[in-house]
Structures are given as C-alpha cells and as structure tokens.
TrEMBL record:
One of its GO terms (molecular function) is 3'-5'-RNA exonuclease activity. Residues 375-394 are annotated as: Disordered. It comes from Chlamydomonas schloesseri. Pfam families: Exo_endo_phos (PF03372). Residues 28-415 form the Endonuclease/exonuclease/phosphatase domain. Gene3D superfamilies: Endonuclease/exonuclease/phosphatase. This is Endonuclease/exonuclease/phosphatase domain-containing protein. The lineage of its organism: Eukaryota, Viridiplantae, Chlorophyta, core chlorophytes, Chlorophyceae. Residues 375-387 have a biased composition (Low complexity).
Amino acid sequence: MPSVPGPLTRQFISVKPQLVGNGLKVISYNILAPRYASYNSYVPPQLLAWEHRRELVLQELSHYGADLVALQECDEAFFGAELAAWMAKAGMKGSFVPRPVGPVPGPTEGIAVLWRAEALELVAAPRNLLFSELGPQVAGLPAEVAGTQPWLKLRELGEGAVMALLRHRDSGRLLVFSCTHAFWNPVFPDVKALQVALLCGELAAFSKQAAAEQGGGGGGGGEATAPAPVPVPVVLCGDFNSLAEKRQPDVFDPQVPEGARQVSGVYQLLSGGTLAPDHPDHPHTRVWKPGPMAPTVIPAGGEGAPRFPALPLSASGLRLGSLNALAFGREPPLTTRTATFAGTLDYVWLSQPGLEVTAALSLPFEDGGSPPLMAPGAAAAGPGAAASTQPGTWRDPVADVAMVPVPNEEYGSDHLAVGGEVQFV
C-alpha cells in the first residue's frame, strides 16, 4: 500500500470563505491509551511505545492550533504531566474524566476537554457524568426499562461524558462543549444507542439550564410573557464506536442486504433526532441472550426477556449535524485504520442551526469519491461548499482508500483526528 501524507500536512479546507469572524477551531481525537496498545500488535514495538507516540500526539495538537480539543483514551498520567505542560505553553485549560471500568486492566484513562483561554472563558465548573449512574427518565424513558437486558448491561460499563459551559470572549456567546467515548463492543449497538440517548438528555437539559441562568431569554415584558431562552449551542465530540453507514453484511449485522445502506443506530439518533423501535440497533429489535464470551443476537420475539419496550429513543430535542457531513456532503470512509478494520467512528456534532461550519480538517487520503476530502496544495473551497447541499459518493473503507494502518512512524494513534472551524450563527 502506498504511503500517505503525515498528520502535519493536514490542512483546514475552507468551505464558507465568505464568512469571517467568531470562528473557533475544534478537534476530536482518540489518542490510543497505553493500556490498549497491545491490541495493535501489527505495529513494531518501538513505534507502539507510548514514549514515541505521545510526542507525535503533542506535535499534531500543536499543528492544528485548535481552540477546542476533545480527547478520548487520554491517559491520566499523561494529562497531568506532559499534556499539562503542553497546555500551559499553548494557553489551554482543561478537564479530565476517568473511566472507572475499562475493557482491560491498566493505567487509568478517560476523556478530556481542552479550551484556549484567550478565546474562551469557563463559566462554571465542568459537569462529569457516568451513563451507568443515570436513570431512564433522563432519556425520556419509563422506569421499567431499567429491568431489561440492554439496561442491565449499560449499568456494568464505565463510559460517560464531560460538559463544559464556555463563553466566547469576542462575541460573548455561550457554548456547551462536550466529549464522550461510547462502549466499544460491536455486539452491543443497542447499549451504545442507550448511552447516547442518555447523553442527549443531559446535554439538552444542561443547554437549556445554561440559557436560563445566563440570561439567554426574556425581556421587559414580565415573566408570564417573556420568551423561553434559546438553548445554548452544543459542540459534541467523541469516538462513538458506531459507523455512519454499513453497506455489506458481517458477523455483527448479517441482515444487511448486499448493496443496501444501513445507518447505525447511534448515527441515526444523533443525525435524525430519534431512533425507531424497528431499527436493527434499537434495544427493542436487537434481542439477545448472554453467551460464554458475548451475547448472541437472536430474532425479535425469541428468547432474551425481559424485552425492551417498543418505544423510540430520542435526542431530547437536540438538532445536530456532523461537521464532516455538513462540510463535505458525506462522512469520510474511515477515521480509524488498523490491520483488520477500517471505518468511521469519530465525529464532531454541532447544534443546528446554532453553529455553521466554515472549514473542515482535510483527511490524509484520497478515496476517489466526490467531493474530495483532501486539500491539494492550497485547497479550493468550491467542492466543499457545493457538497453541503447534496450527498457525496460512498467509498469502501478498505477497498477504495489508500490509507496505511496506524499508528506508525508519523501517526501516534490508530484513529485520525477529525474537526474543523465553526462559527456562531
């Protein structure tokens, strides 16, 4: 496979050059915690060593110069030492949330949000949450779902999120900046959908509360007639461990017809605001029974009671758009590439219509699709600007993309950073 450009060649492709002012660069990046590196045994040991990879990660973060950075699989010791020193030099502040239960033993890792203090002011202490500690009512669900198999599985896990309320210094506008890392196991798309539904419920409530407490609405007309505060815009970043779409059947989704398009439950929930009970990833449809290693998915109506009710999952009124899809008209075919897997799992979600994409971070490969995802020299704005109104070409992440497995000599993680520049509407 041919070599690909290194991360320090990636550029921000302008897609709305006519819009200037109040722009914020945002980056989301799963940096591969040391405790999980053993899964990447295809990488030579010297290139997999954290001492090598951490320097690459810091160089890459410096290259992007983002105002908002969301990290997943961030090692706690790294956050408190090397990253803290880098943040001090770069003028960044941040907050770290550990994951108390992880897939394998090892040093503590978690998620983190960083913001550039010169551009953004922290309004209140960041709010940390664990999905396992939240009740069904947070996602607008009845109490009885807590006894179902998917919910019991959710209670065993350690994933969560962090939410920070920031004020943009130049414009005075408020912004909710959030980071999450959904459950990794592809056998449990229903549990991931529940995690995201809970996160949306918390984000929606946090956004509305921030608007009310920070003077987001009201006027001189008195409390009875004052308009409701407009919710604060949300930037939600993370590794959602969920594909934007699947076109070929596999061991996890054998029911996908050849050539058809199946959107994951998490992506459908975030992009469409709801997940119907008949979706293959909905906990009502994906009935399963525990097995010795992992649950076996069985057809709806089979074993595995108690059954999750046939109720739609909701994004609690959040209207979100994926930054890459808004900019390019399509998701990239991959944001992670290992020796055995390639696909898009990483996203930056933006409130719509509260935030607009003015630039997108180029991808380090050309997949032959339309519009292009790379920046050829000084990137032209035309393809990206036109692409925002129509779907782009889908490309197979393995067969159509000349992307080498990572990490390697230049890339410090098995994921690619994603992001761009956004502006308040």
